Amino acid sequence: MKTWTEMASIQPLVSKMLTNGFKQNRVSHAYLFYGPKGTGKRAMGSLLTKTLFCKKKTDIEPCQDCKDCHRIDSGNHPDVHWISPDGQTIKKEQILHLQKEFTYTGMESNQKVYIIDQADRMTTNASNRLLKFLEEPNKETTAILLTENSQSILQTIRSRCQMMAFKPLNTVALQNQLMDKGLTEANARLMVALTNNLSDAMELDKDEWFANARKIVVQLIEVLQSKPEESLLFIHNSWMHHFKDREQIQQGLDLLLLWFKDLIYHATGNEALIVFMYEQERMEKSALIWSRQHITNVLQSIMDAKKKIGQNVNPALVMEQLTLQIQR
């Protein structure tokens, strides 16, 4: 999404608040963009930044073609700093480096912007350093924090930011868009369950690794149903071989979560919500093996496993524990 008009079509309230701020010359020194993945937070941060720097904008609409706009797109603007997790977390040293950078005069103007992606993954020390930075705002410095989980950010940081809630996109409209682009209904439904972003969904649909990930999740269900005594062996020989890093394991757990959600939909007669549309036979078999209460417990166990993966717990151990919990 490159223009304010485009952004207004997917996030009307946030777009209106930001554009009104520009028109009234009331740009905040710090924003916190929060909401589900794929709702346009990063694109909005980039657009906001372009509007601040573009010298050829029309009203508040950046030109998208000048040197400033191109460098912001490529991540090479000297007065725009992006911070992302270094490994699993954003560390104190990254915030200290940012502060040091901001003691210098702007390379091309006095305007400076820093954007912190996945801000909820700041360590406690990093959060405290950022808080001190926010407590002494420079009127020509703008902070943009992006997160899917605003509650994990210090209340003292949140109180110093203008909060911007990004709403989930219209899933029906997105599913129809994907089907118009050639995806089957089953694939479109799965992609919409995993992301609210059209381009991400298209890339995921073409990803061979992801296609194999889906197969492995279904194979795990089959092993758990038919040969539970071999499930731990399957985890080590197949699951861990395919899901090699923490991000991939999170994707595998997301797929597993969708499967067990489907079992709840199947049990309650909400067939229209089922994502794994062509696995009805396995679902009926699952319903005979696992009670609704057990399925609910498994959903919580998968959420706990996702949390542990995010906390750097040994992935193999997490998957072993989860498999045993599903078997109970």
Automatic annotation (TrEMBL):
GO MF annotations, alphabetized: 3'-5' exonuclease activity; DNA-directed DNA polymerase activity
- Keyword Ligase (UniProt): no
Check the record and name the InterPro entries matching this protein.
Answer: DNA_pol_HolB (IPR004622), DNA_Rep/Repair_Clamp_Loader (IPR050238), P-loop_NTPase (IPR027417)
Q: Which domain of life is it from?
A: Bacteria
Under Enzyme Commission nomenclature, its number is 2.7.7.7
Tell me which Gene Ontology terms the entry assigns under biological process. DNA-templated DNA replication
Q: Which Pfam families match?
A: DNA_pol3_delta2 (PF13177)
Query: Keywords on this record?
Result: Nucleotidyltransferase, Transferase
The kind of enzyme this is, by top-level EC class, is transferase
PANTHER family per the UniProt record, alphabetical: DNA POLYMERASE III SUBUNIT DELTA, REPLICATION FACTOR C / DNA POLYMERASE III GAMMA-TAU SUBUNIT
Spell out the protein name for this chain: DNA polymerase III subunit delta
